[in-house]
Design goal:
alpha+beta; 5-stranded antiparallel beta sheet; 3 helices; 5 strands
């Protein structure tokens, strides 16, 4: 019994003070965006199948020693795959995708270094076929 009495007396002597609860602050919500700002237009890109077709041609030309470097540029209006003979030069050819022209002239175009449009159309593999023509010797 003495043990129980000593536990009870120890409990009686300790004061139990209430734990202070932290005050929560109410943070106002940020103001909504103005309704007049239009959403940013999406960036034009080449999809996986288009890049596969382009890189297939590029790989064959690199293996033949004709091309050495490339660059890809994605913009708000066009996507451009530029082909270089050397990295320090201007591009030999540009393969452009412009979705705005899809119903008129075709979304794809191959443009030479001087700005000449070599071929334009809606089928990428047919458009870049102009670059795949190999030089043939005409015998006589």
């Amino acid at each position: 019994m003495k043990e129980i009495d000593s536990l009870e007396s120890a409990g009686e002597g300790a004061r139990s003070e209430p734990i202070p609860t932290p005050r929560l602050r109410v943070v106002p919500a940020p103001p909504p965006l103005p309704a007049s700002s239009p959403p940013a237009p999406p960036i034009v890109t080449f999809d996986r199948l288009e890049l596969g077709v382009i890189l297939n041609l590029y790989g064959r030309k690199v293996a033949a020693g004709e091309w050495r470097d490339y660059a890809i540029d994605f913009g708000r209006q066009t996507a451009v795959f530029s082909i270089y003979r050397r990295a320090s030069e201007v591009p030999l050819y540009r393969i452009e995708k412009d979705p705005r022209l899809a119903r008129k002239q075709g979304a794809y175009a191959v443009i030479a270094a001087g700005g000449l449009v070599m071929k334009r159309g809606s089928d990428l593999s047919r458009v870049i076929a102009v670059l795949d023509k190999s030089v043939r010797l005409v015998g006589g």
